[in-house]
Amino acid sequence: MSDVRIGVYVCHCGKNIGGVIDPAKVTEFAGKLPNVVVARDYMYMCSSPGQSLIEEDIKRYGLNRVIVAACSPRMHEPTFQGVLKRTGLNPWLLQMVNIREHVTWVHDDVPQRAEEKAKELVAAAVARAAHLHEITTEKFPVVSSALVIGGGIAGIRASLDLANAGIKVYLVEKKQSIGGKMAQLDKTFPTLDCSQCILTPLMVEVSRHPNISIYAYSEVVDVSGSAGDFKVKVKLKPTYVDWDKCTGCGTCVEKCPGRAPKEFDEGLSNRKAIYFEFAQAVPRRPVIDAEHCLWFTRGICRVCEKVCPVGAIDYSQKERYVELNVGAIVVAIGYELYDLSKIREYGYGKFKNVVSGLQFERISSADGPTKGRILRPSDGKEPKTIGIVLCAGSRDEKHKKYCCRYGCAAALKHVYYIKHSIPDAKVLILYTDIRAFGKGYEEFYQRFRGEEDVFFIRGRPAEIFENKDGSLIFDVYDSNTGQLVNVKADLVVLEGAVEPPKEWESLRRLLKVSCDPGGFALELHPKLRPFETTSDGVFLAGAIQGPKDIPDTVAHAAAAAAAAIGFLSKGYVESVPYLAFVNEDICSGCGLCASVCPYDAITIEEKEGKRVAKVNVINCKGCGTCVATCPSGAMQQNYFTDTQLLSEVVSLAGGVK
């Protein structure tokens, strides 16, 4: 390997590396290793002067391999690959050594050992670099259309941004109408704008946009293909109403004798068996609930069919499927409220006057079950003492460990509702900590902190009990005063935890997206790429990436749309460099690699009378599962061949000489 000419560059990374080890000593050690032509250290190797230093050395010394010992390759591998590209070298002749996260950050208490470890890792990289080879990628055209899954505010914002950029958008929503959780709110904090006044114009804009097709009351059931060319199967659930004929006049809903709990009101009121999701629903088309319709359950009625002026009722409808071909997918399915009945000590689901924050929103809404009057669900009386419990199920080791991020501000908004509806009401806010983190939230908090008859108690209820008159009693220890407070309330509002929707588990498997410890979608990078996933062409918008308030959700959705637009506007997608490849001479065609591939990128084919594995270049994501499984070693992976990896292992086994 006399033609191998390696340059080694050690970064100080300020004090992150240089404050623990001596980069100059590591550099001196590296300069004596085989095939190393030049070795240098610099304060910030990723800076413009640092990059120029490498470029000049490549030209001066004829380097054909470059090793950079610095931070994680997740941070700056593209940076240094760009240096190689600018000098005409293949970018995959670069080897990075992570001596920050893997050395100085974890061994800052033993600098001498950290320095020895840094030398060992650099030596292993030098041994590996001798076996690096050029890697090329292939380009494939993309389909200039996008799928947005979820029609809440995140899906609406992403759809409009994509459509306004000239991209065809298919918006799939599982409910009868788009709008999501935001449509159920009365007002939004901290400005206290009417929620539907903000939302419904956007909903109408989506419905009228020439580049957007809405598939409401539908679900994504299968996803195949790859980035830039996804094949998506969507199930259209039977509505038993021909939406093409229906004019949305509402006569059928008015005359229907059937009854069922109204989901939009969180079960606090009833709706008809044929219904609109809510008054401003988009699309404004009704759905028949077969579980509560008298025709489907008892074979009687058919009133809706008799009164429909356009003959749109169709009891014979079955579920249908459509196939969509899209280049990018934006996931915007939002969140679900945690089942508060699991917090047994609070009595939710057992006591009628213990309600969730979202139920309280519906009670306070002008189009809610009480037309905006705050009344107790048990007897319709006006409550005079109301307890608001923050962090119900969140920041709790027994339930959800994470913060919902909007509960504190929602509680303050609910104080506003109460004091404007019942001025003489007494409000107790039971909190762990007040987290008023958003723009204008601190001022929002201060506004109600001094409100008359509003009391902040730092503590959580021990257990809630119900009196015969429907009132609620409980004790709470106030950690600020060190006193045990006995509370009697007419109504208790639980600002609950949130979690991913139930359908997320199956959907994420279709999309091949990982999840974080809370179950939410795992982003590609928490700071730099929070709207991308490890699956190319799949983007995240809103609360499915983690709990968010409305402003953050809208910003995140806009960022996801921008990323998707950038992805599609290139007109092509590149194969990953870490492709698996097959040595057909020793492949037995056993099929184990195909059986374990999570991306369906491997098939077994007949070639010259022999069964061999074949890798689909566009589907392969370079995970390496097939390589680890292959019993013969026929399956290898670019940049991680057996020879490259073993050379590192042998070097590490020998230690620093």
Describe the structure.
The chain has a five-stranded parallel β-sheet with strand order 10-7-6-18-29. The protein has a five-stranded parallel β-sheet with strand order 20-27-21-22-23. A four-stranded parallel β-sheet has the order 2-1-3-4, sandwiched between helices. The chain is α/β, with parallel strands linked by helices. The protein contains 19 helices and 34 strands. It folds into four domains: 6-135, Rossmann fold, CATH 3.40.50; 145-334 and 528-569, FAD/NAD(P)-binding domain; 337-499, FAD/NAD(P)-binding domain, CATH 3.50.50; 580-638, Alpha-Beta Plaits, CATH 3.30.70. Helix content is 29%, strand content 23%. Strand 21, helix 13 and strand 22 (426-431) form a beta-alpha-beta unit. Helix 3 crosses helix 4 and helix 7 (153-164) crosses helix 8 (195-208).
Helix-strand layout with pairing:
Blueprint lengths: L5 E6 L3 H4 L4 H8 L5 E7 L5 H14 L3 E6 L2 H14 L7 E5 L1 H5 L6 H19 L9 E3 L3 E5 L3 H12 L3 E5 L14 E2 L4 E2 H14 L3 E4 L2 E9 L2 E8 L14 H5 L4 E2 L8 E2 L2 E2 L11 E2 L5 H5 L4 H5 L12 E7 L1 E4 L4 E2 L16 E3 H8 L20 E8 L14 H15 L4 E6 L9 H9 L4 E5 L6 E2 L5 E7 L4 E7 L1 E6 L1 E2 L4 H8 L26 E3 L9 H20 L2 E3 L5 E3 L9 H5 L5 E6 L2 E6 L9 H5 L5 E3 L4 H13 L3
Parallel strand pairs: 1-2, 1-3, 3-4, 6-7, 6-18, 7-10, 18-29, 20-27, 21-22, 21-27, 22-23
Antiparallel strand pairs: 5-30, 8-9, 11-12, 12-17, 13-14, 15-16, 19-28, 24-25, 25-26, 31-34, 32-33
